Backbone:
């Protein structure tokens, strides 16, 4: 997808600059043509020589010295015209401020100002700097200008504290880059995805839940969005995803209710949520206290609605996809679900197998559809499973 694409990688002065080396490598592996531009501050963290070696091109570091890349002599305008996609990684508060206010005082800010190609930035910095209203206002301005912004991830920061400000994982970065070159094959389609395990309350502090991380559903929603679909994600887990309508729910009943509202106008439903089959019959108003005399405690459960089966029974044009999470007899159990739930497709996985269980980033899927032999895909990342599934949907 990235073969022969001209990607300008602007590296500004943050500690995450060293991680940009991995991005350049990944772009080169995909046969993109990469031109790295570094600010003075970025060169304090990593040398231009390292980037030049990995990108197979001299690095541009100033406005005034004649350069020899990628064609011959490249002042900022030629660089801007050459660019298919400009990425700023890491993007410091400084470059964000300059971009938002049209300041052009070095090769980086000047070229970015002259570039009309799509721009994608990855802000990374200390949490308090990121949260500062000045930075947030500048980011808002950039968003209004149509500049793509990938939010920083949360986690351990270089200064020793934990917070929001880290560069996201490489797969997230590459997905955001590739998204600029993806053909929008789901344009005009309305897609609904459910994700995460439902939480069925026992009392105000406890619930019955399951081990689902929601990652498969989030991947399905992300890829559908990237292919141009109008996506509604009904989720029990946090979903820091832009460009889609996100509805947070907790219980199966709430999920069902939200789904009933959107289903009539939906083209495709992907039920990736792990819905609890039962919920407590009575939800205690107050926290349940343990009793010293009793070693056994019983919670009476009542059946939840089978959301997939109920919704799929009302379908007309909708394409309905269910999952089958099994620990044994994968095919026979999944075939029963295909028949009983009125789904067009069941994506079955053995959650007891390494690499396809809950919480991991990979999955091994067997696709079942009526009147077809099941097909098993190799173990792959959940994003790749989602890509393969939507490809199947588009070409079915
Ligand atoms: N599902 C649903 N409502 C439920 C239970 C499951 O909509 N109450 C959906 C899930 O989202 C999934 C599919 O049905 O797409 C299969 O879910 P799974 O948990 O594998 O199977 P169950 O139907 O719950 O059957 P069992 O637990 O007996 O395997």
Residues:
């Amino acid at each position: 997808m990235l073969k022969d694409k001209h990607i300008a990688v602007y590296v500004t002065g943050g500690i995450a600059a060293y991680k940009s080396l991995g991005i350049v490598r990944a772009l080169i592996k995909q046969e993109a043509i990469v031109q790295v531009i570094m600010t003075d501050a970025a060169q304090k963290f990593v040398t231009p020589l390292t980037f030049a070696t990995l990108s197979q091109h001299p690095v541009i570091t100033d406005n005034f010295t004649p350069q020899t890349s990628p064609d011959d002599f490249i002042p900022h305008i030629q660089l801007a015209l050459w660019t298919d996609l400009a990425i700023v990684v890491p993007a410091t508060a400084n470059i964000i401020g300059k971009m938002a206010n049209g300041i052009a005082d070095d090769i980086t800010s000047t070229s970015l100002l002259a570039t009309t190609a799509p721009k994608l930035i990855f802000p990374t910095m200390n949490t308090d700097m990121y949260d500062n209203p000045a930075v947030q206002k500048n980011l808002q301005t950039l968003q209004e200008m149509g500049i793509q912004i990938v939010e920083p991830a949360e986690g351990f920061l270089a200064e020793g504290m934990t917070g929001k400000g880290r560069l996201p994982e490489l797969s997230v970065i590459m997905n955001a880059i590739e998204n600029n070159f993806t053909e929008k094959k789901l344009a005009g389609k309305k897609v609904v995805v459910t994700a995460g395990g439902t939480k069925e309350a026992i009392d105000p502090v406890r619930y019955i839940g399951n081990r689902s991380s929601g990652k498969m559903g989030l991947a399905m929603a992300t890829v559908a969005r990237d292919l141009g679909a109008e996506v509604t994600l009904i989720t029990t887990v946090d979903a820091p995803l832009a460009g889609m309508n996100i509805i947070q729910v907790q219980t199966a009943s709430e999920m069902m209710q939200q789904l009933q509202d959107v289903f009539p106008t939906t083209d495709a439903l992907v039920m990736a949520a792990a819905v609890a089959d039962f919920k407590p019959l009575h939800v205690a108003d107050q926290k349940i206290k343990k009793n010293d005399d009793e070693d056994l405690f019983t919670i009476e459960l009542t059946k939840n609605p089978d959301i997939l089966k109920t919704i799929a029974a009302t379908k007309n044009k909708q394409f309905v996809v269910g999952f089958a999470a099994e620990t044994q007899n994968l095919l026979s159990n999944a075939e029963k679900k295909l028949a009983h739930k009125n789904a067009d497709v069941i994506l079955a996985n053995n959650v007891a197998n390494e690499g396809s269980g809950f919480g991991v980033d990979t999955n091994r899927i067997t696709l079942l559809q009526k009147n077809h032999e099941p097909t098993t895909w190799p173990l792959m990342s959940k994003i790749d499973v989602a890509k393969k599934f939507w490809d199947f949907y588009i070409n079915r």
